[in-house]
Amino acid sequence: MHIQELVKPDGRQLTLYSNQPIPAGLVAPSPFPDPQNANPHLRWHPLRGEWVTYAAFRQNRTYQPPPQYNPLAATTDPQHPTEMPAGDYEIAVFDNRFPSLALESHDPPTLTVPTAPANGKCEVVVFTQDPQAALSRLPLSRIELLLQVWGDRTTRIGGQHHIQYVLPFENRGAEVGVTLHHPHGQIYCYPFVPAVPARQLAQEREYYLQHGSSLLCDMARDEAADGKRVLYHDEHAIAFVPPCARYPYEVWVMPTGPCKDFAALTPPQRASLARALKTVLLKYDTLWDRPFPYLMAWYQAPTDGAEHPETQLHCQFYPPYRTRDRLKYLAGTELAAGMFAMDVLPETTAYELQQVEIDLEDHA
């Protein structure tokens, strides 16, 4: 993996990644000449026992720009710069101009609930320079590189500046609130372990103490043996609809053997995980012969320096559709009670996805 680090005119960091050497002399552009001086803050929710971040300046962030202005496309006119330089590279990561968390956050307001600086980091990950592409259509080599990039960002940022958790994710589709349709994801780096991964880690830890093995690795073994919900399986990776799915087309993707984070992936695990991920993405897009919206979230070990043998790197997909034409809205029981209600069995949607034929080699 080849890496080149640059600095934008407004002071934000830009890092370029490629499987091939990156030419020297590239210049990091920015649509903004001056620093944002972002200063988000945290407020404690006493009933839920969790932090909420506030960043009022995000109300003015880029929203559904016209097709002729794509801030994630490579700059072609220096007089009208985008976020991306022209040049020969594959993936770019840069500091979000409108972050919900910022390392320099300071002086939170004094309120009737506890507050704190939102000392974290938010990055944008641009998967390709092609605005018409999608993660599902990128070659396996690019997806493997992306897994390496996520590992590099986790290693660089995790554990520094009191960062405790690094969460890569991709929002795809207007149905999940995407405002820029150029293929990209984000990385949020938190100064604490957020509520959802904290609860998952607690369950994993309890299981490990009782059984001496990984909860998710044991689940993967059992799903592979059962086979009813499996979408992809080889020696090193698996993808399946979980029997406890809360969304109709929810899918989990993970290594089959213990692996706590991206940096711990072996080359064979990384290659298999890329194939498993691409298989799921292609099945999604082929299911209804149209781009399939989703939230893809990657969970890994906290960056606190501990070993964390209990936890397992894995991805969870949350697609918003429950049928071809109907969205699954989170309503009373989901939002008010926190208990999801499903109208379809995981075995049914797994069977639908299993029947979707794809040729992974044609899209390699």
Automatic annotation (TrEMBL):
Q: Which UniProt keywords apply?
A: Carbohydrate metabolism, Galactose metabolism, Metal-binding, Nucleotidyltransferase, Transferase, Zinc
Q: Which residues form the Galactose-1-phosphate uridyl transferase N-terminal domain?
A: 38-194
Source organism's superkingdom? Answer: Bacteria
**Enzyme Commission number(s) of this protein:** 2.7.7.12
Q: Nucleotide-binding as a keyword?
A: no
Metabolic or biological pathway, per its Swiss-Prot or TrEMBL entry: Carbohydrate metabolism; galactose metabolism
Tell me where in this chain the Galactose-1-phosphate uridyl transferase C-terminal domain is found.
203-357
Q: Which reaction does it catalyse?
A: alpha-D-galactose 1-phosphate + UDP-alpha-D-glucose = alpha-D-glucose 1-phosphate + UDP-alpha-D-galactose
User: What is the name of the protein in this document?
Assistant: Galactose-1-phosphate uridylyltransferase
